[in-house]
Amino acid sequence: MADMPDVSAPAAAPPASSRIRPSTWAVVLAACTGQFLVVLDVSVVNVALPSMRADLGLSAVGLQWVVNAYSIAFAGFMLLGGRAADIYGRKLMFLVGLGLFTAASLAGGLAQEGWQLLAARAAQGLGAAVLA
């Protein structure tokens, strides 16, 4: 019976559970917040469409473009944002995307003409794609 392994020996104890550092939680919170902003921005604009129509004089087609400019830019640049993150680093591209998204949100809020709002929404979509 020398060929049989000795199973009576106790198994090695697993290493002590390592605690997750607070900085790790900060990174997770920042990533979740960024994704929440991206998803929220797709749908929250629908609430403001009647005000946009009245204040900026947008037609029904223009209002559709307010929604679609973001979605098309977001979908179109998603792969480019991922590739840029592979090349330049995820942290840098997350911050670049967040900065672009924030600046475009401010520009959209300050828009005085319909075309300005559409350009800002497209820039928001680009920022969201890089951020995501």
Can you describe this structure in just a few lines?
With 132 residues, the protein is mainly α. The chain has one domain (38-131). It has helices at 22-56, 60-88, 90-109, 114-131.
Radius of gyration: 24 Å
Strand content: under 5%
Mean pLDDT: 88
Number of domains: 1
Main pleated sheet: none
How much helical structure, as a percent, in the residues?
A: over 70%
Distance between the termini: 60 Å
Number of helical stretches of at least 4 residues: 4
As residue ranges, the low-confidence spans are: none
**Tertiary shape:** elongated
Keywords: Antibiotic resistance, Cell membrane, Membrane, Transmembrane, Transmembrane helix, Transport
GO molecular function: transmembrane transporter activity
Protein name: MFS transporter
Transmembrane segments: 25-49, 61-80, 92-111
Polypeptide structure, described:
This protein has one domain. It is built from four helices and no strands. The termini are far apart. Helix 1 packs antiparallel against helix 2 and helix 2 (60-88) runs parallel beside helix 4 (114-131). The longest helix has 35 residues, at 22-56. The mean pLDDT is 88. The protein is an all-alpha fold.
Core attributes:
single chain; mainly alpha; 132 residues
